[in-house]
UniProtKB/TrEMBL annotation, chains A, B:
Family matches, as Gene3D superfamilies: 3.40.50.920, 3.40.50.970
Cofactors demanded by this protein: thiamine diphosphate
Keyword Lyase: yes
Name of the protein in question: Probable phosphoketolase
Residues annotated as domain Xylulose 5-phosphate/Fructose 6-phosphate phosphoketolase N-terminal: 30-391
GO biological-process terms attached to the record: carbohydrate metabolic process
The organism of origin for this protein: Streptomyces sviceus (strain ATCC 29083 / DSM 924 / JCM 4929 / NBRC 13980 / NCIMB 11184 / NRRL 5439 / UC 5370)
Amino acid sequence: MINLLREGFVMPLGPNTETSLDTPDTPDPLDEEELSALDAHWRAANYLAVGQIYLMANPLLTEPLAPEHVKPRLLGHWGTSPGLNLVHTHLNRVVKARNLDAICVWGPGHGGPAVVANSWLEGSYTETYPDITRDTAGMARLFRQFSFPGGIPSHVAPETPGSIHEGGELGYSLSHAYGAAFDNPGLLVACVIGDGEAETGPLAASWHSNKFLDPVRDGAVLPILHLNGYKIANPTVLARIPEPELDSLLRGYGHEPLHVTGDDPHTVHQTMARAMDEALDRIAAFQHAARTEGAAERPRWPVIVLRTPKGWTGPAEVDGLPVEGTWRAHQVPLPAVRENPDHLRQLERWLRSYRPEELFDEHGSPREQVLACVPDGAHRLGANPHTNGGLLLRDLPVPSLERFAVPVDKPGATAHEPTRVLGDLLAQVMADTGERRDFRLVGPDETASNRLQAVYEASGKAWEAQVLSTDEHLERGGRVMEILSEHTCQGWLEGYLLTGRHGLFSCYEAFVHIVDSMANQHIKWLRVARRLPWRRPIASLNYLLTSHVWRQDNNGFSHQDPGFVDHVLNKSPEVVRVYYPPDANTLLCVSDHVLRSRDYVNVVVAGKQPCFDWLDLDAARAHCARGAGIWDWAGTETDLGEPDVVLACAGDVPTLEVLAAASLLRSHLPDLAVRVVNVVDIARLLPMEEHPHGMPDSEYDALFTPDKPVVFAYHGYPWLIHRLAYRRANHPHLHVRGYKEEGTTTTPFDMVVRNDLDRYRLVMDVIDRVPGLAVRAAALRQRMVDVRYRHHDWIRAHGADLPEVAEWTWSQ
Amino acid sequence: MINLLREGFVMPLGPNTETSLDTPDTPDPLDEEELSALDAHWRAANYLAVGQIYLMANPLLTEPLAPEHVKPRLLGHWGTSPGLNLVHTHLNRVVKARNLDAICVWGPGHGGPAVVANSWLEGSYTETYPDITRDTAGMARLFRQFSFPGGIPSHVAPETPGSIHEGGELGYSLSHAYGAAFDNPGLLVACVIGDGEAETGPLAASWHSNKFLDPVRDGAVLPILHLNGYKIANPTVLARIPEPELDSLLRGYGHEPLHVTGDDPHTVHQTMARAMDEALDRIAAFQHAARTEGAAERPRWPVIVLRTPKGWTGPAEVDGLPVEGTWRAHQVPLPAVRENPDHLRQLERWLRSYRPEELFDEHGSPREQVLACVPDGAHRLGANPHTNGGLLLRDLPVPSLERFAVPVDKPGATAHEPTRVLGDLLAQVMADTGERRDFRLVGPDETASNRLQAVYEASGKAWEAQVLSTDEHLERGGRVMEILSEHTCQGWLEGYLLTGRHGLFSCYEAFVHIVDSMANQHIKWLRVARRLPWRRPIASLNYLLTSHVWRQDNNGFSHQDPGFVDHVLNKSPEVVRVYYPPDANTLLCVSDHVLRSRDYVNVVVAGKQPCFDWLDLDAARAHCARGAGIWDWAGTETDLGEPDVVLACAGDVPTLEVLAAASLLRSHLPDLAVRVVNVVDIARLLPMEEHPHGMPDSEYDALFTPDKPVVFAYHGYPWLIHRLAYRRANHPHLHVRGYKEEGTTTTPFDMVVRNDLDRYRLVMDVIDRVPGLAVRAAALRQRMVDVRYRHHDWIRAHGADLPEVAEWTWSQ
């Protein structure tokens, strides 16, 4: 054991740390028997973690350890594992003693061996994977499969029973924990936060989630900040500031810290048990006060600060360098066990230091004492159904669309703000889930800006901090969640969905890039989870991206980025869906679909500005069901032959420009056969081998023709369409317009002109591409050029769009 | 004025807030004359901010305000502007009084009108834009251009003199401020942080930057947390927690807070002046102690908490609803001035409340009193050369590559870890800038993991927190920066580069997605700045992406994502460059180029694992200069005709697999003419009209042939290559292999097999695509199928790759 007091690892307690638990006059919470049992469980878990990293045979050391018992590739993260095992052991104790419904989010999920070890000990692993039996043979398979080709990954992952959190990319544990706790008033969500993860932005922001947790309607989150002092190769910030400063930080986050510090196992067991008891007593008291006495003050929820050595109980020194208690314990402390007899001996000594013969019987099964702290059935952390949320999921009551659809007698005669229309539907969903409380809307302070404020009629905005009389719609237990952190919004929603509930994330289109990497990780989670038969499908993660690139009148260039779609379309096609509803009714139909769907990440891009109503509800339903279709009322095809040109569009603004271009062509070149195709479901452009929604070539050719010019006006970066359609026969004739990073604070029409997506440019594109038109329509082309110049002068003089554009209305 | 004490806007001071500045016994720092002058400057700035939002004529209200004086589209953010103006006014005072070298990062950059107003007042705006004169005509143009087509954006932006920070996407102000302060010991960097921005993850993480700021070698950062209480539509968290809790939070971040609270301008002026003096006195004392007395304790740097109403001095009520001091003041408080006579009257009253006749003379120029607080020349915040970093930039001393290149007598005879070789070069750069201190290396705790640890010989890792004797390479004033926050790394580096220095960001490839949106914003900044003649070119932002998708042996699926390249290639081609050096010497050549370059975002993807050396330095230089070329020593072309097939590759692992496939083909089909093409600079595949590096069709055809099958093994998502090359004549014959989201914790070769990028699959692809081979090479194809099956069984049995793969060496 290293001496933690050496060199100030343990800071002197400051004036703020009166809640430190080391005061000598408190009686020990554990008697000898319980202490011994907890320590046995911890040792067993540590033994199993080391075994997973190193062994492929001789799991119980029934013979002397030999090189051939050791894996050829030593992978895994030992450093965090003993700490995770300690937390799991002590969670077991309180869950059992208090009969809790509890889960744990393991932020340092790199310590996969620890969480897997605990699941195997409690039996949930064998229930999930029957071939990994709780005996010597199963232990051998457990060891061998870890980080082994064909086996399990090195992190906590979808494959891990009891997990809702992949431990690979750091930063999201605490927001996942809060997401799990919302609307689960009976649930305790423990959350281990590593001091490395604590340095990330998303984690730092998510501490303030406690201002959004209602002690009446939500469960409790118990953060356990585990300071083992090091990241991969560096000390951590929070472990190297004075303890009073850390204490002040946590109080500033709104928590009451409980400090557990040490490196002597028995002492730490006692202190940790006392901290757990104290924390759970306080949580119970806060909940009781709020639920039965109507206490309105925001609780100062407890946080446990656990300061133990990295790689605790592992090799103190290797090759003359200190390992335990340093960053060198991060991954595999003894790296050359197969080749180096000293390392082999050290490994054997290390494994035997846990006294496996006391922990496992002659069949390799955990002995009774080891399992004494383990709770039963669904109380086990690896078997709680909240961590396999699909088990608890109920269908969302999406109301009939008829009540919300806008009437459309003829296309383009009226206009609505699509997201406002959707807001009415969402308000109804919010109202209809008022009792069930399994639907939440999240967004970074943009619900009203995105025109969804009708939802406030059904639920206010969650808010547990101070309220002033001028405030509107703030509500304890509100299910609309607004914090100016896309990361926290995303993390909350993921945690909420993974525990079997429903939701939607509304976000400015440009700023959803802030959560690119989180979306990545969630898609990867779903892709793996879908292939695990025991993981039940969960509700899809639905993005509503609005305030989009074409209508950033107020904000300009920094707010223009339609590339999130490009990003997610690189990911597993079985998970990703992207929709561009062109008007209010199509947005309703798409939303109805995505809200009912399972195991997808759905991206819906829709405008919040007034937009012509093109399709009535029936037509919208049919169009969205097809995902792409001909709008014959907008084109000028007159027979069953092929048109001269196809004008295609995806997105509300491109659809407007295409219809205006079609209208110009009808007026000026009435004999030109123009087909208008609108695409809602962008993955339909892909070959059917590449995406479940991809259309067969025959259907593609029927829509877009095999060889006629296609002028495609697209909402996003134009080359995405080429990337989707490059295998189609007609690809050489596909010409795409879209956003090409030309923007500033300007008018809506100036935006499309700057990016060559405007109606006049589209008419020119048609003239340039249809054989024979170049000469015949030269005068029309010149008029198009002229009006674009006129636009240029006009907006600089008047600060507004050309009257003929601003006042344009659709007519057939 | 609203009453801030109403409803507890001002919290009672708690026990921790002993540094609050409201104690009645302190004498006022401002005499009547100075107070009056500061208030005049503030009123003038406020007047100019309102004028920019509303007016297109009658700027000085020399006639009654009429609807036609008002802009047709009212855009802008008033709410934050008076607070920014207050800060600017008081910064002017202290900069002048103390003769400071100071800049300010304006986090609430939505308040563009405020910063522009101040620049105009101090004269730096007119110096930058001579047509915006400091008189009535110039004021009229100043007003009109704001958020007007052809004018300037609504946010603080590259167009704004004195800015290094776009105010659009929130979260990065404080890390930018620290980046600016590093290695600028004489500089004060003030940083206004809005309480909205303070909720974001990146901002929350960046508070801990003070553990990396050296009081000796770095400048000072003065954060000013501006609590105006509201975001777009919601209260902010930090404004609605009790002041003692906020105070505790800031102390936990390592700061000493100075609270300035109020809504009476004269009182706030006095308190703010006192806070500024106190803060600067403390900063000076800390610097003095560290620089001349060798004090080693980390300073508790001051932070000012400025709590004033949102939209302060604007309309208190509009249409019967409270506006000043609420979220309704966020954008345009009077929305219908042109149509609603009441609004028009209110606007006129509002504008006249600043008493413009006292502020501007009959020519529209600011009066002497208004300018009394304004410093001179480069001391003005809008004219400090640090904010136009190219003015201060010196060429980086990149040493001769000969000293670092690895000897290559023949291709593939030796192997090196490319990033380790680069590490030696970077160490030399670090050493050679030891005096100049204008080069930093940033990374999220991965410098050593990425094999760049040689740099520690020249500079340690910046660290101002506690140091233990077991620590290595920690150093006060070190120029290697490691914190487990990609956001903070990126923000630091951006701030450092924008103030005229050099740097490199080394990052795990998958996790650079964490800063997707920051990269977006920096690329947008550069794209705009490049078009402003007065902005001098700055050093490029260089990413070294390593620990890449193909070699995540230890971590698996969550660590596999090569999509950052797809993301940045959507952005402005004049800014973005992407390189895939295939070995150590090409990495040196590419690094040499990017380190010397200006105004780019360079993405370099390179491996850290041992990799065959293919090219000696001369060949590497020639190859990198071309960006793509034929490796004739690897192919089997024998004459000047066209080959039967082209095997193309980009990336180190694909290059290895292509060379192995070429080797198999040479052995088994010796008469097949195989050409091997390696691509380093991926943008070369684009048409020359689409990217400055794009190659003409003639060159493309010469490399890839116009019509022969091309089997392209690519490092990333395969469709990116199609997106780049779809316009080429040979595109129908282009077949791309790449990463397709198939991965887990497994061996390197299993990764390429899972994604069909392995040598055997590539041979099959050749056989399937070269006419006539299907029959002739059927047996070879079957052998390829068989070996892939054998691989499958072997790794599951042995946990390691097939011996013939693991031991494969290149031979011609």
